[in-house]
């Protein structure tokens, strides 16, 4: 996977128009913002005609939703990769933090700007379907943390849910600060804080 959330094609093969459009949209939406990025910019960067965009997406809003879905799937793939190396429920919680740090480590065109999902959601109006995609992603992240904590604290389900919310807030706060500061040091610090909290359970 690339920073765009779209699988890269085999060398020597030209990617389908839909993939090129999604890759171009992902680069531009993350670097410049959803509102500031027009259809003409995306089609020019993707090297396709405007009609090709409308053959693949019903509207810019549809393209934005596809971008958000792809970014969610990309994060899940990174989390699953980290989880394969986890030896315990504690490691599973920390795999969530590591997956966020992995996203921050991409070679973004204009540097790391924080969570691409939240950045996009901040530009979308209340009630927009794209905001629902982002909300579901954040809820899933918290559920994943909660699942690991329930394994760690099988006799204390209420404590597991409370700690999951606490760690989700820690993670999101660290991601916001990391985006403002343009590097992953806040995420690494948040992971260390999470590890210390887990060790006290």
SSE topology sketch:
Elements (H helix, E strand, L loop, with lengths): L16 H16 L6 H8 L3 H7 L3 H24 L5 H16 L11 H8 L5 H24 L4 H25 L3 H15 L2
Helix pairs in contact: 1-2, 1-4, 4-5, 4-7, 5-7, 5-9, 7-8, 8-9
The chain-level structural class is: mainly alpha
Shape call:
elongated
Instruction: Give the helix level as a range of percent.
Output: over 70%
Tell me the series of helices and strands, N- to C-terminal. Answer: HHHHHHHHH
How would you state the average pLDDT, rounded? 92
User: What about the largest sheet?
Assistant: none
Number of helices: 9
Terminal Cα span: 36 Å
Rg over C-alpha atoms, rounded to the nearest angstrom = 18 Å
β-sheet strand percentage? under 5%
Count of individual beta strands: 0
Low-confidence stretches: 4-12
Describe this structure in words.
The protein contains nine helices and no strands. It is mainly alpha-helical. About 4% of the residues have low confidence. The two termini are 36 Å apart. The protein is elongated and about 60 Å long.
Tell me briefly what this model is.
The protein has 201 residues and is an all-alpha fold. It contains nine helices and no strands. Helix content is 71%, strand content 0%.
């Amino acid at each position: 996977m690339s920073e765009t959330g779209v699988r890269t094609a085999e060398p020597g093969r030209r990617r389908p128009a839909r993939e090129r459009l999604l890759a171009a949209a992902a680069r531009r939406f993350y670097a410049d913002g959803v509102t500031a990025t027009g259809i003409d910019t995306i089609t020019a960067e993707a090297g396709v005609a405007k009609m090709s965009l409308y053959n693949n997406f019903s509207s810019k809003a549809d393209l934005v939703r596809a971008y958000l879905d792809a970014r969610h799937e990309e994060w899940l793939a990174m989390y699953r990769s980290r989880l394969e190396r986890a030896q315990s429920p504690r490691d599973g919680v920390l795999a969530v933090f590591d997956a966020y740090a992995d996203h921050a480590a991409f070679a973004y065109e204009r540097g790391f700007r924080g969570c691409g999902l939240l950045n996009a959601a901040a530009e979308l109006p209340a009630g927009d379907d794209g905001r629902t995609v982002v909300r579901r992603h954040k809820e899933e992240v918290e559920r994943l943390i909660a699942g690991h904590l329930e394994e760690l604290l099988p006799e204390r389900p209420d404590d597991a849910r409370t700690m999951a919310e606490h760690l989700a807030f820690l993670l999101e706060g660290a991601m916001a600060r990391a985006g403002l500061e343009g590097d992953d040091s806040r995420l690494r610090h948040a992971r260390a804080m999470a590890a210390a909290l887990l060790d006290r359970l």
